[in-house]
Amino acid sequence: MRNFTCPACGKRLTLDFATGKVYCQACGYVRPDEISQLDATRQQIASRGKRQHVPLTYKGEVMPSAYAAFRTGHDLLHQGDSQGAFRAFVRASEYQPDFTDAHFWAAKTASAPADQREHLEHVLAHDPTHGEAIRLMMVLNQRLTPQQAEQARGDQQPSVQHAPEAAARIRALLCPICGGHLTLNEHLARVECRFCGHSAPYDEQKRSSGDLLSMALIERKAQPRRWNVGARLVVCQQCGAEHTLPATKLSARCRFCGSANVLLGDALRSFVQPDAILPFRSTPEAARTAVEQALKRPAQRLANLFNTNRITSAALEGVYIPYWLFDVVVDVTQTRSGFRGGHAFTDNMTWQDIASNVAIPAVKSPPPRFLAALPPFAMRDVVAYAPEWLAKHPAELYTLEFDKASLDARTVVAEMMRRKHQREVTIQTRDERGVERPETTRTTTRIASMIFSLVLLPVWIATLTEVDGDVRLALVNDQSGKVVFGETHRQPHP
Asked: CA–CA distance from 86 to each of 34, 63, 119, 134 (Å)?
């Protein structure tokens, strides 16, 4: 008891369990061996503060056992025990495997990359739009640095800067034997030289499975700027001539030696290479026949009765047109509401649907509204992109960015799902007393996730000249032979 007796007044000393302070309530004496630790103890308690409430992102009902383990994890994390917190979060995820918050915090507190990846995959499997989990996964995959991930957290978008010209890298498609121009046999998947007869198999690469839209948008936000390049300066690898490649061209022939030059990149990294390509399969003759047959349709014949503008000539060219291709997962919810047994009720049923190969034109010319009418294409024949595929037919470079294209894709998918699912039906039912009660069934859709890729699709472009000199555009789907007619460009007549 002597240690708890005040040496100043003889009264009993008091121990403050919160601060560790031993003091006398009568005279205010503080035991000397505690004074040196008093300030540090107060600062430590103040720094701990009150544990903040962590809001849940999980939309369903959380099991009590899972929530208790989840709370324990945050208590341990607040105390600085990250290993204990990780074990508690793992227990919570084992109690309820679809509890995404438990998986997310297990990933945040895990020390091993394998554990981080495992729990982040669980989160994204149940909630593909979880922004924090996406950022952590991108850092784990070294797609973003921690600093870039933090920068992408805000609302600031990268600035767009214009560059009139940029130096570019190209590849000339030349024969390794004689240096002649190579061409590609699409049917045999072989590169061939028409000068010396050299032929070699083309080794197709594995096609990319696409990119998650949410990840690509976060990666774009993490970049300080985006470049809008007007033209690209290239040097022909065969003749050494310098020339300018327009901003809309992915490939072109050298105007001096005629070799095919394919754009690989520029100094500003202003564009990305295509992920895949759908090779040409039909011939110019088949495309010309498709146009001729389309001109004989009743609508075209009726137009000729009024204009008497018969076609006198047609120039035909096969061009690879870039399309953004989207695979979209859609949440479909059907809600029934009405009266049952004299009481109001509401029942919800939710399932998922998929819209595959939604093609959005990525160029401004030819006009997108005509290009949008050309699909569907035979996507089962799509292969990985390589410059060799452009040996015979040139390709356009995309001018519509993927984020803008995703908005068009949302509109297309929403209309597709509306026709397939969305309906509102009201029927009259009678309750046990014979009173009529309305019962309504309503279906709504919400886009859950989107995966996209950049694909070059084969299109025949026909320039049709009429008797009076007016020019019309016709687009032909190389795979199906579908023909879409564009607008007529009127020529001034005397």
From this structure: 35, 19, 11, 20
**Is 289 contained in some domain?**
yes
pLDDT-derived band at 306, boundaries 50, 70, 90: very low
Q: What is the pLDDT of residues 10-27, one digit of tens each?
A: 788 787 665 667 778 777
Whether 494 maps to a domain, the answer reads no
Whether 230 and 265 map to the same domain: the answer is yes
Are residues 322 and 467 located together in one domain of the fold?
yes
- Position 80 in a domain: yes
Query: Containing domain of residue 136, as a range?
Result: 64-147
Amino acid identity at 427: I
Cis peptide before 366 (omega within 30 of 0): yes
Could you report the per-residue pLDDT of 202-222, keeping only the tens digit for each?
655 555 567 777 788 777 777
What pTM does this model have? Answer: 0.72
Q: Answer yes or no: are the C-beta atoms of 400 and 438 closer than 8 Å.
A: no
d(CA 404, CA 361): 11
Q: State whether 315 and 243 are in the same domain.
A: no
**φ, ψ for residue 45 (rounded to 5)?**
-65, -40
